[in-house]
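Morning. Coffee machine broken again, so started the prediction first thing and wrote up yesterday's gels while waiting. Chain of 93 residues, entered below exactly as on the submission form.
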Amino acid sequence: MFDVTHIAKLARLGLAENEKEKFAKDLAAILEFVKKLEEVDVKNVEPMAQAAGLENITRSDKGEKREEEIRKNILGNAPETKDGYLKVKAILE
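Came back before lunch.
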């Protein structure tokens, strides 16, 4: 029962006595399952971060050439421009 009370306190959860008993049983079942996992022989298994073999797919961070007409249209709709670029308020000072 101490473990459940301590964990609930760490998680800032208020538990009634009947909830503490229920969660004590649930926690015991979880810990029993972990014990079973500890029995598995993993000596010849390589550590891995995930099992599906997925990889992040990212594009290179390169600007794209725009047609002059599109560029002029974009700059023409901007409230302020400077030297052919959009002028925006500084966010870092």
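Strands lie at 81-82, 85-86. Going to sketch it on the whiteboard this afternoon.
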